[in-house]
Amino acid sequence: MTELRENKTKKKLERGEVATMLMGGHNSPDMVDFLGQFGFDSILIEGEHGPVDFGHISDLSRACDLWGMTSVVRVNLNLPGVIYRTFDLGAQGVMIPHVNTIEDARAVVDASKYGPIGHRGAAGGRQGYGVEDYVHKANDETLVTVLIEDIVAINNLEEIVTVEHIDVFYVAPGDLAQSMNLTGQTSHPDVRAEVDRGIATIVDAGKVAGMLVNDSTVDDYLRKGVRFVGIPWGPWLASGAKTFLDRLP
User: Which has the minimum average pLDDT: 48-57, 149-158, 169-178, 222-231?
Assistant: First the structure.
């Protein structure tokens, strides 16, 4: 009997460990397959701001499976059909934008989990091929991540974090800055203060905080209790390219 694939990221977080997510430009299975060798726990598949659509999810998540990485699809809408179809096509995780209220958070869980937790459409899916009783096992392996990216969400966060079965509450400074009329100013003291307030609220509630980091900020956010760190690979490529080109006559 085929066993359901373990969700590496979810299990690490459940054990209290730090989990990593590689971000940026993962829109082809070949690219995902290439990046798998480096050992990141998960990869973000961009279905909100990028070209990924439902027809791409099966092969992109399949490439993640080859390396035991968690496929996390950022979807564009908090709608039941969008969320459970993403899981049905093979994603092991979802990231839902603009979760601003406790009702928004409950809707995410309801669409992501089979009963008795939620009302995910009672079909199978690619991750369930050959798995006996898939609908009774899937809830344990689906990673649910919500984006806290508006000031209204920060203000409602004490309520939002009471919702069970959400694995990560991920604070997003870019949209947060815009919602504070500080578009593009993610380093503004007021934005940084709200980011820190959000992280503290999540951590104090005993939940997992997620954050976009880079080489210079990761240690600070780990000290603040963040355990799901997203890192874009683009800056590493840009730095290496500049270093090389600057050496040439």
Answer: 48-57
Phi, psi of 111 (to 5 degrees): -80, -25
Which homologous superfamily is 8-247 in? Answer: Phosphoenolpyruvate-binding domains (3.20.20.60)
Please give the average per-residue pLDDT across 173-191, as a whole number: 97
Place of tokens 């000031």: 151
Is pLDDT of 28 > 70?
Answer: yes
Domain ranges of the chain: 8-247
Active-site residue among 49, 136, 165, 188?
A: 49
Catalytic residue list contains 165: no
Cα–Cα dist 228/127, whole Å: 23
**Which is nearest to 125 in space by CA: 161, 156, 88?**
88
Peptide bond into 116 cis (omega under 30): yes
CB neighbourhood size of 71 (10 A): 28
Separation between Cα atoms, residue 119 and residue 121, nearest integer Å: 6
Q: What is the pLDDT of residues 140-159, one digit of tens each?
A: 999 999 999 999 999 999 99
